[in-house]
Specification:
Length: about 290
């Protein structure tokens, strides 16, 4: 079954429902913010699928990456999105839609600061300490018990089953919540979340420094949309994030969470690329998690 055809069918169905609700026969423009949508090959295959499924879906179709929808829901002038869920990724998009990205390479070679990364590092830290390979910075007793209880282990030898025989990335990433819970009183778990905040901050710093290298213009502030369950532990991530993000080219940052769907940002971009004006109440679509200055 062609996944792009199925995707086009679902999108066509949603478009038809929207037209029915507002009693119009054709849409002027559609903006699609899709995972992998920035790739030219994917865009071409989706457009070809529309030719088969619904050639009259709209007069203009704009397809972009899912991160763009989030950014332009929060602001009409671009900004940054930092994702830390099961995986991690960071993207900065300027007002004229020039894109800088860092991360997003998957759990095998990247995803630093993600739920999977935190859980993997926690297990590795305890295991290395247990075997005498590398001492943990703090006692592992609480972390070891959390690992054994969550994964139902009797000893560390059974870790092999988690990562090889019955590998479930989402389940491993889910252990991060238990690290976060324990961090209230356990120094090692708190240290692991500090490290996660540090590396997530470095994602932001990398993009700010790359943008500065091209423009030679410092940033007074930047809006960063935070997405992903890892940020539920923001108070434990915060100091590491500040230490990681510090750069002479950025003075402050506003950390935002979306209150509404990123489909609004996709619609905004669809209208912009069709030379249509769509005004959104951007400030009402977000909540400010924190404001940082250094």
């Amino acid at each position: 079954m062609d996944g792009f055809i199925e995707c086009a069918k679902e999108l066509s169905k949603m478009a038809q429902e929207a037209k029915s609700q507002i009693n119009i026969s054709k849409l002027k423009a559609i903006g699609l913010s899709l995972s992998g949508g920035a790739q030219a090959d994917s865009q071409a295959r989706i457009m070809k699928a529309f030719e088969t499924v619904d050639p009259n879906i709209a007069e203009h179709i704009y397809i972009c990456n899912d991160t763009q929808g989030s950014i332009f829901t929060a602001s009409p002038h671009g900004g940054m999105v930092l994702i830390a869920g099961t995986g991690s990724n960071c993207v900065y998009i300027t007002d004229n839609e020039k894109t800088y990205s860092c991360g997003g390479w998957g759990h095998m070679i990247g995803d630093e600061g993600s739920g999977y990364w935190i859980s993997h590092k926690a297990i590795r830290t305890a295991l290395n300490h247990e075997q005498g390979l590398e001492d943990a910075p703090y006692p592992i007793d609480v972390l070891r018990k959390r690992i054994f209880d969550y994964f139902d282990l009797k000893n560390f030898d059974e870790v092999l089953d988690i990562f090889y025989t019955n590998f479930e990335k989402a389940k491993i990433a889910g252990f991060t919540k238990h690290v976060s819970d324990a961090a209230e009183t356990d120094r090692l778990c708190a240290h692991l979340l500090y490290d996660a905040g540090l590396v997530l901050g470095k994602h932001v710093r990398a993009l700010i420094n790359r943008a500065y290298a091209e423009t030679k213009e410092d940033f007074e502030t930047v809006d960063i949309v935070l997405e992903g369950s890892v940020f539920k532990s923001w108070t434990r991530l915060k100091q590491g994030f500040i230490d990681g993000v510090r750069t002479e080219h950025l003075k402050a940052a506003r950390l935002l969470r979306l209150k509404e769907t990123s489909a609004l940002g996709a619609a905004f971009l669809g209208a912009r690329h069709a030379n249509l004006k769509l005004t959104l109440p951007h400030e009402n679509l977000v909540e400010v998690l924190d404001t940082l200055k250094w």
